[in-house]
């Protein structure tokens, strides 16, 4: 008589293969080491605009360099991108068209057309996307954002994110970042601020911007439902003034964003987990490419108001 007991599967568990585009300071300090250490993915390879830098970074993390992005896409299930936004967007479209899930950096793009193209390509291909907004994936910060969004009733908020990346005595690894020099705090820090304000107060119906010293920008937003918020962002603040804070006011009182102080790698690990979950379940993550495109739309409107 044949046994009716279940037979254990001998099929091997396939670990998703993820490739990395980019070899700059952010890729070196966060993307590559976090991907190499993540038990849920296999860092399958690295491509960079400098083949020598790609070879060096790949050797450091026990993987291989690829000569072209398309060769890397063909070898992977997902692609992580650590490149300037103008380079990221067209490569993200190509990766999605190749069937790869996308772990994107912020901002997705600095033009509305390019940001929408990334989201549209992922939708057509049915690939999962996650944008790495650092605060949304921080342990304490993410929990606080979720709690305040669930509580609701917030009628106003203010954010200060003042960085000294381009201060006179800066030793930041991003001091020589061409795209940050060109686009300033509005595009480098603005996405972080919006990633917190939008889930708490709702989508922005209007935005205006005012220039301050150097690249400092003051933002004022009106949100769907009538709430209002403001923000000050800068990459040129003096080092003693560097800080970030988000405070919201509403029916529950006043509360401020906690400082997790855990560094970006644990947050990036959670972003990888979020991408794997979205790919497995087919359910979009709140920080997907469509949300990233909406952030670009708001920042583009702010930039236009500066003119």
UniProtKB/TrEMBL annotation:
Would you indicate the residue range of the signal peptide?
A: none
Residue ranges occupied by any GFO/IDH/MocA-like oxidoreductase domain in the UniProt entry: 175-254
Name the keywords, alphabetized.
Oxidoreductase
Domain Gfo/Idh/MocA-like oxidoreductase N-terminal residues, every copy? 17-131
Which Pfam families does this entry report, sorted A to Z?
A: GFO_IDH_MocA (PF01408), GFO_IDH_MocA_C3 (PF22725)
InterPro entries listed in its UniProt record: Gfo/Idh/MocA-like_OxRdtase_N, Gfo/Idh/MocA_oxidrdct_glycsds, GFO_IDH_MocA-like_dom, NAD(P)-bd_dom_sf
Which domain of life, per UniProt?
Bacteria
Protein name per UniProt: Gfo/Idh/MocA family protein
Taxonomic source organism: Streptomyces celluloflavus
């Amino acid at each position: 008589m044949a046994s009716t007991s279940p037979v254990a599967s001998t099929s091997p568990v396939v670990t998703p293969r993820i490739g990395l585009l980019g070899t700059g300071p952010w890729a070196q300090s966060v993307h590559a080491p976090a991907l190499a250490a993540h038990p849920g993915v296999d860092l399958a390879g690295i491509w960079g605009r400098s083949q020598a830098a790609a070879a060096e970074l790949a050797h450091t993390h026990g993987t291989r360099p690829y000569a072209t992005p398309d060769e890397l896409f063909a070898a992977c299930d997902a692609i992580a991108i650590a490149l300037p936004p103008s380079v990221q967007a067209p490569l993200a479209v190509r990766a999605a068209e190749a069937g790869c899930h996308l772990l994107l950096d912020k901002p997705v793009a600095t033009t509305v057309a390019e940001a929408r193209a990334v989201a549209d390509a992922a939708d057509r291909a049915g690939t999962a996307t996650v944008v790495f907004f650092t605060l949304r994936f921080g342990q304490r910060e993410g929990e606080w954002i979720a709690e305040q969004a669930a509580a609701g009733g917030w009628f106003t908020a203010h954010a200060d994110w003042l960085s000294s990346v381009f201060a006179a005595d800066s030793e930041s690894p991003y001091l020589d970042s061409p795209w940050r020099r060109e686009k300033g705090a509005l595009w480098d820090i603005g996405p972080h601020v919006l990633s917190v304000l939008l889930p708490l107060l709702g989508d922005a119906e209007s935005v205006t911007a005012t220039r301050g010293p150097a690249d400092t920008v003051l933002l004022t937003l009106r949100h769907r439902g009538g709430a209002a918020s403001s923000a000050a962002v800068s990459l040129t603040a003096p080092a003693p003034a560097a800080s970030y804070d988000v405070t919201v006011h509403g029916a529950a009182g006043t509360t401020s964003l906690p400082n997790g102080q855990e560094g970006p790698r644990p947050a990036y690990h959670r972003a990888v987990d979020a991408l794997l979950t979205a790919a497995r379940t087919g359910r979009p993550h709140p920080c997907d490419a469509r949300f990233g495109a909406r952030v670009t739309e708001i920042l583009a409107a702010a930039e236009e108001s500066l003119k």
